[in-house]
Specification:
four-stranded antiparallel beta sheet; alpha+beta; Methylamine Dehydrogenase, Chain H
């Protein structure tokens, strides 16, 4: 019997189950080689694709497809958004466990990937470093810089392609680098806790942290302190690079930009403190930062506008097609991945596409792949 897309998604023939999400036990571990998933799992995927197919058909029909440039431009924009929605759904609905590092009670906090070698390194509490030595599923522990005996928490990690270096930052001003060969070198130590790090991909690096700390480097090895543009003593909780600028955001609700990590200009200031803040950049969407209950966006890092309010807490992720909120449940045992495809200036239309069995503490699109962390586990989403 030949089964078409709409038959699977809406009215499957007798004997075939309707669309159902993947079994809860398989959402994290996935299906093993040779194991036959339930038919309803595929129906769930077909259902998502059918929704997109129907939306696209309705959009094109409604547009009328006249030859005016405006209408055609709107059609093309709509098509790109719908294609992006389908791809994003694929990434979210196929999130699976890549590896359980079994490093508990240590937890992983951030991850970076080298595009050329495809090496992935994750860092976490108590000096935890986990790196793959082959496939994505093959991770092993690495040792902190010789002689440092560092047992503090690594909070973030970035990779710079020009330098060929992974750069990890952590508590008490710790900065360590590695070319990916398993050997780490301490570059700085002492002072305020470092919370985030970013590079421009051309050798210039910026790390930020508590007490207005901004560190910069032009080679990844020697680090200097830049003067903070913020008044008072707020913590700097986020840094990202894009559109030729480094952008930082503080716990006081202020945002500043710099072309070199040294000279900074305040671009946006809410003048009120926030406990929860995240700042991300995507080439398609631009900069997005989330203060508790409010989300702002900027294409160039200079002009900012609010795109959402009362979003709640959670991990913030930006992709070329959407921005995501990943709030934890009240008991912290699960997380619902919600996404919005709404353009800037419009109220977001959130959709829940994946519910994790454990709370996701970190999520990021890296080289068009969706990576996530939860405790000692590393997850990988579908390919966009």
């Amino acid at each position: 019997m030949e089964l078409k897309l709409d038959q699977w998604a809406t009215t499957p023939p007798p004997g075939y189950p309707g669309p159902i999400p993947p079994p809860s036990g398989k959402r994290a571990a996935g299906f093993t080689n040779g194991e036959e998933p339930a038919a309803g799992y595929f129906n769930h995927a077909w259902d998502a694709l059918a929704d997109t197919q129907n939306e696209l058909a309705n959009f094109i029909t409604g547009a009328g497809l006249t030859r005016s440039e405006t209408d055609l431009s709107q059609v093309l924009q709509g098509v790109l958004m719908l294609v992006g929605r389908a791809q994003l759904k694929a990434a979210l609905t196929t999130v699976r466990a890549v590896h359980d590092t079994a490093i508990g009670p240590k937890t992983l906090r951030a991850l970076a990937r080298a595009p050329a070698t495809r090496q992935v390194i994750a860092v976490g509490t108590a000096g935890a470093i986990q790196a793959n030595t082959g496939p994505n599923t093959d991770f092993a522990a690495q040792t902190v810089a010789a002689g440092s005996s560092y047992a503090g928490d690594f909070n973030d990690i970035a990779y710079d392609a020009t330098l060929g270096l992974f750069i990890a930052v952590g508590t008490v001003g710790e900065i360590q680098t590695s070319p990916g060969n398993g050997t780490w070198t301490r570059r700085a130590n002492g002072g305020e806790h470092l919370l985030r790090v970013a590079t421009n991909g051309l050798g210039r690096c910026v790390a930020v942290g508590a007490g207005q700390t901004i560190k910069y480097s032009i080679n990844g090895t020697s680090w200097s302190t830049a003067t903070s543009p913020f008044s008072g003593t707020p913590d700097i909780l986020g840094v990202a690079f894009g559109a030729g600028l480094f952008v930082v955001a503080s716990s006081s609700g202020a945002v500043a930009s710099s072309p070199d990590g040294i000279t900074w200009t305040v671009r946006h200031n809410l003048a009120r403190p926030y406990d929860n803040m995240q700042l991300v950049y995507d080439a398609g969407l631009g900069f997005v930062f989330h203060f508790t209950g409010e989300v702002f966006r900027s294409v160039d890092g200079i002009t900012w506008s609010q795109i959402h309010a009362a979003a709640g807490d959670g991990v913030l992720v930006a992709s070329s097609f959407a921005w995501l909120m990943v709030p934890s449940s009240a008991d912290g045992t699960s997380a619902a991945v919600r996404y919005s495809m709404s353009p800037a200036g419009q109220a977001p239309d959130f959709t829940v596409d994946y519910v994790a069995t454990g709370a996701l503490s970190w999520m990021k699109f890296i080289n068009s792949q969706l990576w996530a962390l939860s405790g000692s586990k590393i997850y990988l989403g579908g390919i966009l």
